[in-house]
From TrEMBL:
This is Max-like protein X. Residues 37-48 have a biased composition (Basic and acidic residues). It comes from Nyctiprogne leucopyga. PROSITE patterns: BHLH. GO terms for biological process: positive regulation of transcription by RNA polymerase II. Residues 105-132 form a coiled coil. Efficient DNA binding requires dimerization with another bHLH protein. Binds DNA as a heterodimer with MAD1, MAD4, MNT, WBSCR14 and MLXIP. Can also bind DNA as a homodimer. The gene is Mlx. GO terms for cellular component: cytoplasm; nucleoplasm. Transcription regulator. Forms a sequence-specific DNA-binding protein complex with MAD1, MAD4, MNT, WBSCR14 and MLXIP which recognizes the core sequence 5'-CACGTG-3'. The TCFL4-MAD1, TCFL4-MAD4, TCFL4-WBSCR14 complexes are transcriptional repressors. Plays a role in transcriptional activation of glycolytic target genes. Involved in glucose-responsive gene regulation. The keyword Cytoplasm applies. PANTHER family: BASIC HELIX-LOOP-HELIX ZIP TRANSCRIPTION FACTOR, MAX-LIKE PROTEIN X.
Length: 219
């Protein structure tokens, strides 16, 4: 009986201990699950923050690039640097900067076209001078090779008639082409007339025509 009572007492103690342990275990929260949920939520929030921050930085870079572009235009285009009294001392708006840039580009296109025309005219003048230079060199060389050839065969009167015939022909076109309304128109017409009627080929045709005419009169 004593042994039986001792085993019963030990079994009762073990049962109470198991009961207390199970109760304590059930009352303790599951910290592992909560930590997992917390870390997952923190990760999600940090990902959103990083994404939002990256978007803000990209947008700021885009705005800075646009601002720098307008600042560069305003520094390059001369008309943007000039004082505009209609807007006072206020900063130029983007619309005004773009319009002034467009106007300046159109102005540059016109200037480029004008310069190309001037270069083309100068090239024609250079070509005409080269042809005249070659002709004069041939005349001088021919005179040096035969200094007495043709001497005293052509009188001063004939020379004057040749010169007069050439000048008369040129004056007819000159008188028909030149306007004397103003000095500006006179200057413009003179240069236009020279380019049109004083080309080497045109002068050559005039001289040949005058020589043929004098030849028929003399012979």
């Amino acid at each position: 009986p004593a042994l039986f009572m001792e085993n019963a007492r030990k079994g009762s103690i073990v049962s109470r201990a198991n009961s207390i342990g199970s109760t304590s275990a059930s009352s303790v929260p599951n910290t592992d699950d909560e930590d997992s949920d917390y870390h997952q939520e923190t990760y999600k929030e940090s990902y959103k923050d990083r994404r939002r921050r990256a978007h803000i930085q990209a947008e700021q870079k885009r705005r800075d690039a646009i601002k720098k572009g307008y600042d560069d235009l305003q520094a390059i285009v001369p008309t943007c640097e000039q004082q505009d009294f209609s807007i006072g001392s206020q900063k130029l708006s983007k619309a005004i900067v773009l319009q002034k840039t467009i106007d300046y580009i159109q102005f540059l296109h016109k200037e480029k076209k004008k310069q190309e025309e001037e270069v083309s005219t100068l090239r024609k003048d250079v070509m005409a001078l080269k042809i005249m230079k070659v002709n004069y060199e041939q005349i001088v060389k021919a005179h040096q090779d035969n200094p007495n050839e043709g001497k005293d065969q052509v009188s001063d009167e004939v020379k004057f008639n040749v010169f007069q015939g050439i000048m008369d022909s040129l004056f007819q076109s000159f008188n028909a082409s030149i306007s004397v309304t103003s000095f500006q128109e006179l200057s413009a017409c003179v240069f236009s007339w020279i380019e049109e009627h004083c080309k080497p080929q045109t002068l050559r045709d005039i001289v040949i025509g005058v020589l043929h005419q004098l030849k028929s009169q003399l012979y």
